[in-house]
């Protein structure tokens, strides 16, 4: 079969339909998740026209080494990119571009870049009659101590989570006009996050400490739990989101909460070490101590299930990506 198509089996119909994957735009395509998605799309659909839109403010060109498509250096919130693509066909938009640093306190900047950028995407997709899959976040849930269901959103702790919540509400206004599916990513880790430095995943931060021979530092007493999901599963869920039977928002996690102590155990296993945690007080009163995705709605919509448990993902990441590239990953000093 031509690489520009993939099949979707509908539960209500024995027929198989083929969804066009010919002209693809990935915003934020040089970022952590975006670059993993872009390179996988290139691998799966080698005949497709694949474009990346990224302003490179918070990423690195090295994430796209081996990419053979076009790269447009624009901010998604700057309408000028829409003019640049006016005469180019686009069938599918994967929108991952946004400010993701939760330490950004400039509320106007966060809202403008994330919400107005998304508004541009939706208007562009409407002009092109393109499907849209976009990144939301588990940050829309705020502080909860039970598995998070999609209907529980709307209580964010910070302006980042609020911007994602507003994006979800904006997407609802395009019901009946566009195919739009939002993905609430939980705590993602994996290859191509090195450039994020202090904003990179806990797995990456703890690995840097431990590979340097230091005790891994975590908040007392390591029993905080998060739904940590490997980026390979995130990419699969993002591509399959187009199979959703209707416009919706979907959780993307493993469905299991993993403690910080368990993360350290998995890194120790991958490294063959026995580092004990160095516990310290948590200085943040807005910290999410628990996240866990309820994946039942997502599984119903697309049939997606994670391939990797958190532990399996950490071991694969450390052994097959971090250690082989140790010379390019700066070790954290004590």
For the biggest sheet, the summary is: 7 strands, parallel
The radius of gyration is 20 Å
CATH C-level name of the largest domain: Alpha Beta
Question: Helix segment count?
Answer: 9
Q: Which class best fits the helix and strand makeup?
A: alpha/beta
- The CATH topology assignment of the largest domain is Rossmann fold
CATH-defined superfamily of the largest domain: NAD(P)-binding Rossmann-like Domain
Number of domains: 2
Spans of at least 5 consecutive residues whose pLDDT stays below 50 are: 1-18
Percentage of helical residues? 25-40%
The geometry reads as globular
Explained architecture:
The chain has helices at residues 32-44, 80-84, 107-128, 159-172, 202-211, 231-240, 260-271, 296-302, 310-322; strands at residues 5-9, 16-20, 23-27, 49-53, 70-72, 92-95, 131-137, 180-185, 187-189, 217-219, 225-226, 228-230, 248-252, 258-259, 278-280. The protein has 334 residues and is an alpha/beta fold. The protein has 2 domains: 5-188 and 231-252, Rossmann fold (3-Layer(aba) Sandwich); 194-226 and 256-285 and 308-327, UDP-galactose 4-epimerase, domain 1 (Alpha-Beta Complex). The chain has a 7-stranded parallel beta sheet, with helices on both faces. Helix 1 crosses helix 6, helix 5 (202-211) crosses helix 7 (260-271) and helix 7 packs across helix 9 (310-322). The longest helix has 22 residues, at 107-128.
């Amino acid at each position: 079969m031509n690489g520009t198509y993939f099949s979707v089996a509908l539960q209500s119909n024995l027929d198989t339909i083929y969804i066009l994957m010919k002209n693809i735009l990935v915003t934020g395509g040089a970022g952590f998740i975006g670059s993993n998605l872009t390179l996988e799309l290139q691998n799966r659909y080698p005949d497709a026209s694949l474009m990346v839109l990224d302003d490179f403010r918070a990423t690195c060109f090295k994430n796209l080494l081996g990419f053979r498509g076009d790269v447009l250096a624009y901010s998604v919130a700057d309408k000028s990119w829409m003019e640049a693509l006016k005469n180019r066909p686009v069938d599918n938009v994967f929108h991952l571009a946004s400010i993701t640093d939760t330490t950004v306190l400039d509320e106007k900047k966060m809202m403008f870049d994330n919400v107005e950028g998304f508004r541009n995407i939706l208007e562009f997709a409407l002009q092109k009659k393109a499907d849209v899959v976009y990144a939301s976040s588990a940050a829309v849930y705020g502080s909860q101590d039970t598995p998070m269901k999609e209907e529980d959103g709307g209580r964010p702790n910070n302006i980042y989570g609020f911007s994602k919540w507003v994006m979800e509400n904006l997407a609802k206004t395009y019901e009946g006009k566009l195919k739009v599916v939002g993905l609430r990513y939980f705590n993602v880790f994996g290859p191509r996050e090195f450039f994020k430095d202090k904003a990179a995943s806990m797995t990456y931060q703890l690995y840097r400490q431990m590979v340097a021979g230091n005790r891994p530092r975590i908040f007392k007493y390591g029993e905080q739990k998060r739904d940590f999901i490997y980026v390979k599963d995130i990419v699969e869920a993002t591509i399959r989101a187009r199979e959703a039977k209707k416009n919706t928002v979907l959780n993307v996690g493993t469905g299991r909460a993993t403690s910080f102590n368990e993360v350290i155990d998995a890194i120790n296993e991958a490294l063959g070490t026995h580092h004990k945690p160095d516990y310290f007080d948590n200085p943040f009163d807005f910290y999410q101590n628990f996240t866990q995705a309820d994946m039942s709605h997502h599984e119903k919509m697309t049939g997606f299930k994670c391939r990797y448990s958190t532990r399996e993902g950490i071991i694969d990441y450390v052994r097959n990506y971090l250690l082989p590239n140790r010379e390019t990953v700066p070790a954290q000093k004590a």
